[in-house]
Fold this sequence. Notes:
Elements: H1 20-26, H2 28-31, E1 34-36, E2 42-44, H3 49-64, H4 79-93, E3 101-105, H5 112-121, E4 124-129, H6 132-144, E5 151-155, E6 174-179, H7 187-190, H8 211-214, H9 219-234, E7 238-245, H10 251-260, E8 265-273, E9 276-284, H11 297-305, E10 308-312, H12 317-326, H13 334-348, E11 352-356, E12 362-369, H14 377-390, H15 396-414, H16 420-423, H17 426-436, H18 442-451, H19 462-471, H20 473-476, E13 482-491, E14 494-504, H21 507-526
Parallel strand pairs: 3-4, 3-6, 4-5, 6-7
Antiparallel strand pairs: 1-2, 7-9, 8-9, 10-14, 11-12, 12-13, 13-14
Amino acid sequence: xxxxxxxxxxxxxxxxxxxxxxxxxxxxxxxxxxxxxxxxxxxxxxxxxxxxxxxxxxxxxxxxxxxxxxxxxxxxxxxxxxxxxxxxxxxxxxxxxxxxxxxxxxxxxxxxxxxxxxxxxxxxxxxxxxxxxxxxxxxxxxxxxxxxxxxxxxxxxxxxxxxxxxxxxxxxxxxxxxxxxxxxxxxxxxxxxxxxxxxxxxxxxxxxxxxxxxxxxxxxxxxxxxxxxxxxxxxxxxxxxxxxxxxxxxxxxxxxxxxxxxxxxxxxxxxxxxxxxxxxxxxxxxxxxxxxxxxxxxxxxxxxxxxxxxxxxxxxxxxxxxxxxxxxxxxxxxxxxxxxxxxxxxxxxxxxxxxxxxxxxxxxxxxxxxxxxxxxxxxxxxxxxxxxxxxxxxxxxxxxxxxxxxxxxxxxxxxxxxxxxxxxxxxxxxxxxxxxxxxxxxxxxxxxxxxxxxxxxxxxxxxxxxxxxxxxxxxxxxxxxxxxxxxxxxxxxxxxxxxxxxxxxxxxxxxxxxxxxxxxxxxxxxx
Length: 527
């Protein structure tokens, strides 16, 4: 579970993420969904609804003593994110342990907000629901946790928000309302069509939920506007009105709507959980409420500067060192071996790189990516294998020549200061030059091939091309996707690889490249 330091300060998972290994040993039903990664760590596949449900139920049981049931065809909440909302409501009403009354609009099958609020703070909740299945499960979850005195689950008509729910309770003033509105306007939006930036990576978790939970006419924007319309009539029947948003673009028009309606007190915040971002909006008609400050921009800058990183455990370093030795690397230091393997992958990807002077226990590469060659790598490798199978086999003598020249090219790549020209024959020198120029953008490579004559009568100055490629090309490229600094260093007995953003068009591309390089190294260990 990827958690973020930008979570609410009181969130119990902020500095102590769930221990999957411990939870798996204690709860057999959760153990069924825990796997071991290539790094030897326990992981959960968030693409599987059963795994997400098992984790949610296990965390609620372990950390809050709650036993709940959730059907797979209804929304499965994530506990850390819901806790963020609960803690922010605590900030709004300025009190955690006092007797408070709240309304949960569309409580869902889990009834998670009322159960957490009642368990943690003793709050009283009126929980509304329009869906029959969600209503039945919510009532069952309240009853089996002995919370019926604090939580009242009511079935309301379709499209009902606050007005109908408060008809029977005309004298009660509620401290707050919470709402996790349907995010999407239609099926296309729910599937990510025309609603998600194409440059963003796909969601890391599965999207579950019934139709009434994830879709509404006009999406979350119109849904929250209906809550604003109800609040203009109810006004001081609630001290705070609040809702959680799934799209940042919904925040500004809703704040503008509140401004037009003359609402005196408005605030907002953001909830961070790994790659998952949510935004919350709150407003009040009371003059004496304390308005929490919105999130500061300084925290965003700190988040941007944090490097991407991954670790290679000690157990797999010997295998990686063997792979590097096969490429001609004679240095026994694992940092150098991993760097050589990374250079090989970058060369194959046509990512320009240049070594930056560093210590023996640390190596640095300055990268310049000019085209995205790392996406769909698996499909590309399969297609290459298929094409190779369809080609006729070359004579044995020719295969030996190819192996020899490739090996020599790898040796020169590992030791750029060696006198490659003196060690290789003219044919091998040309082969090495072809390998080196693969670091260049495609158009540069094609231009070089058109003027290169690889006949035995002419010499190929491999050393000159090698040094010029590694020293001048990365920094001199005008058009590029991004530039970053890649560091390889020892961390106790493991190897830590970090990628620091420098400049470019899209940081998600660097994230993709980091994942590609990590998986490539881990596959080398697994073979």
